[in-house]
Amino acid sequence: MTAATSSTLFPHGSTPGAYAGTPRDADAVLEGLDPEQREVATSLHGPVCVLAGAGTGKTRAITHRIAYGVRAGILQPASVLAVTFTNRAAGEMRGRLRQLGAGGVQARTFHSAALRQLQYFWPKAVGGEVPRLVERKVQLVAEAAARCRVRLDRNELRDVTGEIEWSKVTQTVPEDYPAAAAKSGREAPRDPAEIGRIYGTYEQLKRERGVIDFEDVLLLTVGVLQERPDIADQVRRQYQHFVVDEYQDVSPLQQRLLELWLGDRQSLCVVGDASQTIYSFTGATPDHLLNFRTRHPGATVVKLIRDYRSTPQVVHLANGLLSQARGRAAEHRLELVSQREAGPDPVYAAYPDEPAEAEATARRIRELITPVEQGGGGVPASQIAILYRVNAQSELYEQALADAQVPYQLRGAERFFERPEVREAGLLLRGAARAGSADPVLADEDVPSQVRAVLSTRGWTAEPPAGSGAVRDRWESLAALVRLAEQFCESRSAAGVRVTLSDLVTELDERAAAQHAPTVEGVTLASLHAAKGLEWDAVFLVGLTEGMMPITYAKTDEQIEEERRLLYVGVTRARRHLSLSWALSRAPGGRATRRPTRFLNGLRPGSAALGARPAGGGGGIERGAAGGTGGAAVRKRRGPVHCRVCGRTLTDAGEMKLMRCEDCPSELDEALYERLRDWRAEQAGLLGQPAFCVFTDKTLLAIAEAVPGTESELSGISGVGRRKLDRFGADVLALCAGRELPLARDGEGAVGPGDSQSGDPRQNSTEK
Fold it and tell me: Do the Cβ atoms of 690 and 670 come closer than 8 Å?
């Protein structure tokens, strides 16, 4: 359920049986639960596994389970330990339990519970006081790198620290880091052997200074419980019943600690959803959830699939996303069933460029927050969110919302102009502006080139860095400044105004000042990762292009599937209004080369599922259907033809042939297209006819986009008739397969006059 729980348990009325006050007895605790939630609440013995889809009331189910056991006298409050992953979630759980009359139950994070035990048992197990906890290990990692004579900038330092944290939660020792990183497919920010050395030196520094870090809390607690059976027995006498929320996010180290807490007992209830595993980069794995029934053959398994959060329209899209998923987690996906009344259909929108996407999003939000009596949607700003893949995408939306006078708040990131790299860049640009023509590097360069030259000294490059993490985030921030400079100069140049670097610096200052919007009752701007566990009435998923969703550095099948799950999490944050959008180019006037995310293929209007021929959404030309004699293609016009990219109805003959708008991005194999053009020129020369008599440009484009592998697929392309298939099919398919063609001989493979598909070579002469 929502993280923003107020004085009532379910402030938006999305879950049945919401009430205020403490239930009068155990039976009253069960009132208002649906059959599956009730089964969870009453299954108090033996291992229990709750597979709970998004919005199905899992927190409600497990808190009522604990409260029912306590109120019925089956569970003693002090003997129950409920474990989750964030202090916020643990606090919410404690609040619900108090309201249900089970206030003595411990609800903590793994680290909080382990630290309390470590502090209590350390004098007995080791002697003296527990070592001081270093909450921020970055400085110590920096010292370790210096000892290894490795220079790390601030961003590399953060990334290396993240690698050390990952190593510890996966129980990887320093000398094994390079092999472990390679096996898991991690994009190491530095040479893995170098990171392994820094990791080992970091551990040595901690020992010398007698301090421990956050991960050591778990490791040391595990060590104490393993080495001291008497202490383990004491813990097990204290805690006899365990509940673990978000079980799909458990790391190997957390799982080991849980096993030591349990011992040989079976009094365990876990709750999770493998389709919401989005933190594997931190060591989280859904394997423990998926293997639960193997480890506990007699476990009670309950599936929660009634979605009380989202409308049927939102749920339908969420189910559609998972229906295309692959891998083990996908095999255990839950088909959600909405319990809400119907709402508006999700909105899919393609925009010419990123600023247009941001501005349109801000306009739509402005309409949503306008009171109903004034013709608006009446949705509070606090119940609206804009979600994106990386934090660097926020800048355009901050500006667009500020321009539209819409209040907003950032979650999980600093405001764009408050980011350290942006502040540093601003100082450098201001200094360059003061230096003016005195700087020979910047002399005679236009303003965008000057900006690129300045920022290249701080990590900006024409191409993004490989991998994720702080280096990538820093690059994204600097790249956003470069784009801002380009757009600022383009707009001023179009108005006939000459722009200087000083003008740009002034513009940056004004933009920074304008974005100090109130954070109360504001639209939430957040990354998809930061949105986990939250929900809003209206959600705008933006920037959904290939390269951003899935992100460029997602290479393996597992990484691609995690990106799909991340989009699923984003979709299921919406209660009623859902918008999904993408920009066809980065900047105004740019080439429309971008494509919307593959994850929406077959789900958005005018698109086809992966591996399927484009069907034009609600009708169009059916291609590649076998029929007639000799395998000739049968074409059936069944209604308007829609662009397979943006869904717009097509009327131009050339666009209809391509099944997309002229300006929409294509999947063109440019190398193949050039080979086809060269081959066509040769054939046209042999024929002594214009090139279009062989194939028109549009047909060649369609072939280079479809890359057919069989005669049936080739014949399904408009402009490839039976006679052309017989004459040229073998050559075209060979070119598509990347094979070399034998040298053509005069008269072979050339089509004579009148051999075009229609019998008239002029039929398609108007196509370009």
Answer: no
Gyration radius of the chain's alpha carbons = 30
For residues 43 and 407, the model is more confident at 43
Q: Which residue has the tokens 């080495």?
A: 227
Residues 144 and 198: beta-carbon distance below 8 Å: yes
**3-class state of residue 76 by DSSP:** coil
Q: Write out the two tokens for 420.
A: 């350290």
Q: What is the pLDDT of residue 127?
A: 87
DSSP 450-472: HHHHHHGGGT--SSPPSS-SHHH
Judged against a pLDDT cut of 90, whether residue 433 lies above it is answered with no
Structure tokens given for 158? 């953060």
| 3-class state of residue 256 by DSSP | helix
* Average pLDDT of span 395-405: 87
Strand partners for 241: 80
Pairing label, strands 384-388, 523-527:
parallel
Q: What tokens does 283 get? A: 């060591």
Residue with tokens 């009670």: 300
Pairing of strands 621-626, 633-637: antiparallel
SS3 of 596, please? Answer: strand
Of 660, 667, 664, 668, residue with least CA distance to 616: 660
Sequence letter at residue 638: R
Q: Taking each helix axis from N to C terminus, what angle separates 177-184 and 192-209, rounded to the nearest 10 degrees?
A: 130
Measured CA to CA, the distance from residue 401 to residue 511 in angstroms comes to 12
Which one is predicted more confidently, 367 or 395? 367
Which residues, in sequence order, are bridge partners of residue 212?
A: 133
Beta bridge partners of 410: 525
Q: Sorting pLDDT into bands at 50, 70 and 90, what band is 640?
A: low
Q: 635 φ, ψ to 5°?
A: -110, 130
* Residue 102 φ/ψ, nearest 5 degrees: -130, 55
- Collapsed DSSP state (helix, strand, coil) of residue 134: strand
Q: Which residues pair with 642 in a beta bridge?
A: 649
Q: What would the mean pLDDT of 162-184 be, rounded to a whole number?
A: 91
For residue 638 the two structure tokens come to 């069944």
Q: Is 45 helix (H, G, I), strand (E, B) or coil?
A: coil
pLDDT band at 420 (very low <50, low <70, confident <90, very high): confident
- Rounded CA-CA distance 643/658 in Å is 9
Split at pLDDT 50, 70, 90, the class of 764 is: very low
Cβ distance 71 to 98 under 8 Å?
Answer: no
Contact 489, 499 (CB under 8 A): yes
CB-CB neighbours of 674 under 10 Å: 12
The neighbour count for residue 601, using CB atoms within 10 Å, is 18
**More reliable by pLDDT, 85 or 205:** 205
Residue 723's closest CA among 635, 633, 627? Answer: 633
CA atoms within 13 A on the CB side of 731: 24
Q: Reply yes or no on whether the pLDDT at 516 is more than 90.
A: no
Strands (E), 226-323: 241-244, 268-272, 300-304, 306-307
pLDDT at residue 729, rounded to an integer = 92
Q: What is the 3-state secondary structure (H, E, C) of 185-245?
A: CCCCCCCHHHHHHHHHHHHHHHHHHCEEEHHHHHHHHHHHHHHCHHHHHHHHHHCCEEEEC
